[in-house]
Amino acid sequence: MTVPKNEDKSLTYVTLDGIPGKYFTCPSYGLMSVGSCARNFTDAPGAVRSGRLQKCIGCEHGRAHAGVPKIEEAPKALQSLQYRPVCCRCRRDGTTQGTRLIGKLRLVRAHSICVSCFNREKEVIAGRNSKGAKPKKWGGLFYTRAAYVADGKAIVVDMTDPVIDRIEVALTMIRRGHKSVVWARPSVSRGE
User: Fold this and answer.
1) In angstroms, how far is the first alpha carbon of the chain from the final one?
2) Are residues 111 and 173 in the same domain?
3) What is the mean pLDDT of residues 45-52?
């Protein structure tokens, strides 16, 4: 066994006598070749659904071995609010096991709510569901206005779409490009 020059400061690469290629000790899976690590990194997004290679998602060593350039990441707060597809009303994100939306989440109305919540909202506005009964889910929808301070000026925004709570107001405002929301109050209630 010979140890070549270390290309990555956190990993030690070795060659095994009689076996071609470079090897290293993966913190998650043990001794593996560089090619195997690169293959695991590229196959991980599809393999996670079957319960394999979860630790390879976002692995910096796998990224380097696969030759994928590092993408500058947004701050964690912005990743969860602006860039990750999460429904502002039901807070489902399409990655949670046990939901029927796994991997199929589609957001509508300026990428703020999922199709399921949008359909329930239409039922509340119409006053009846498909069976003709009064809708129960999201029956407490209301219209609101939100206010925040930016550059020393108070900005008041009338929400044109109904919301279910203040958290949805804040998430929708941030998703639409407003930086912060400090106050929200119901103005007109729907679905009584």
Assistant:
1) 76
2) yes
3) 72
Q: Select the more confidently predicted residue: 51 or 34.
A: 34
Total number of domains constituting the chain = 2
Mean pLDDT estimate for the chain: 75
In a domain? residue 3: no
The answer to whether residue 71 sits within a structural domain is no
| Domain end marker among 38, 66, 94 | 66
Per-residue pLDDT band for 91 (boundaries 50, 70, 90) equals: confident
Residue 99: DSSP 8-state: S
Note whether 142 and 186 are within 8 A (CB): yes
Does residue 1 form part of some domain? no
Q: What's the predicted TM-score (pTM) here? A: 0.49
Measured CA distances, 183 to 41, 112, 148 (Å): 44, 19, 7
Is residue 9 in a domain? no
Structure tokens of 176? 């639409």
pLDDT higher than threshold 70 for residue 76? no
**pLDDT of res. 103:** 58
The bridge status of strand 113-114 relative to strand 107-108 is antiparallel
**Residue 187 contacts by C-beta under 8 Å, 6 or more apart in sequence?**
142, 143, 144, 145, 158
Instruction: Kindly state whether residues 168 and 89 are assigned to the same domain.
Output: yes
By residue range, what is the domain housing residue 22?
14-66
| Tokens representing residue 50 in the block | 């079957």
